[in-house]
Amino acid sequence: MVSSPRIAIDAMGGDVGPAVMCAGAALAHSRRPDLSFLLFGDESAIRAELAAHPAIAGVTEIVHTPDTISAADKPSQAIRRSKTTSMGRAIAAVKAGEAHAAVSGGNTGALMAMAKLTFRTMKGIDRPALAALLPTLGDNDLVMLDLGANTESDARNLVQFAVMGAAYARVVLDLESPRVQLLNIGTEELKGTDELKDAAAILREADYLGMRFEGFIEGDKISRGDVDVVVTDGFSGNIALKSLEGTARFVTDLLRRAFTSSLRSKIGFLISRPATELLKHHLDPNNHNGAVFLGLNGLVVKSHGSANEKGVANAIRVAARMVREDLTRKIIEDLDNISAHRIEQAAK
Fold it and tell me: Domain of life here (predicted)?
């Protein structure tokens, strides 16, 4: 177990670049002084931003990289330029053992392609998945995957996603046995695709894993707080995620419009401000920033491109916690348990 994680950061990734990435690193370090950083990007731009954060000067190393990946770059183009880009070099640093995890706010497709090519998938995993924390009305957030890495997934993939999602939930949510459900169009056992029904049948028998499989969940129940891990294919997962994000923006914009429509509304806003501030905090994506590529032989966290320093700090926190808790080892142990169970069943 690593007690002092070193995080490789693509300082040029995201909408703002070095300014927010350096500020986020400084905020993360103020919360956990055992962190250190390896920053990749334009050295002069990074040094200019770090001047405002002297507290991390002694725990930060800058590696100049002359090239960056833009939002318009295709994954194939990014891979060809990986050795000269801040994103590619940050991932390579983890592969080389120079850092324990990488964080980037850049092009998601390029980041996924580079990470998969560099680390390869873990033994027992056919496809990696993109997982993220989402807010709920319950006592804790929930883990949802896949959010876009795979447009199609068979039953075997969904079972693997459930294993990885449960392991991740045990690490980031401190849950001994996370509640796991498959996203479906209904909760009845006969509903859904063959892939969903087959995956559910396998998971119902997987009581030897560190999870509680509780069947299917519909999209309108995701945020109720009754589930810890929601599993789906990347196509449906990405649509569900964007729908949730759009609804959150709709609610906040609607409240803003309502509270500014008249003098009486403005007075009402002042009276209800504590409640609206709580709502704003709960819906702020920066408080849940940091999507993770699960299933690779290396740790990579995707920060939202529009994240502010608080969001970047949260993405770094997620990366550091995965390092400290040795998430990769926990996933491997669960996969080994599945293999052992299959061998045992075949021998009967």
Answer: Bacteria
Instruction: Show the tokens assigned to 260.
Output: 């500014």
206 shares a domain with 76: no
Choose among 145, 122, 130: nearest CA to 295: 122
Cβ atoms of 199 and 182 within 8 Å: the answer is yes
The pLDDT assigned to 17 comes to 87
pLDDT digits (tens, 9 = 90+) for 257-272: 766 767 666 665 565 5
The residue that leads in pLDDT, 307 or 26, is: 26
* Residues 206 and 62 grouped into a single domain: no
The CATH number given to whatever domain includes residue 249 is 3.40.718.10
pLDDT at 145: 92
Domain span at 30: 1-125+295-324
Tell whether 320 and 283 lie within a shared domain: no
Residue bearing tokens 């502010």? 308
Look at residue 65 and tell me if it is in a domain: yes
Assess whether 154 and 165 both reside in one domain.
yes
Instruction: Check residue 325 and give its pLDDT.
Output: 87
304 & 191 share domain = no
As a whole number, the mean pLDDT across the chain is 86
**Exposure on the CB side of residue 163, measured as CA atoms within 13 A:** 32
pLDDT tens by residue, 182-230? 999 988 888 888 999 999 998 988 777 788 999 999 998 988 889 999 9
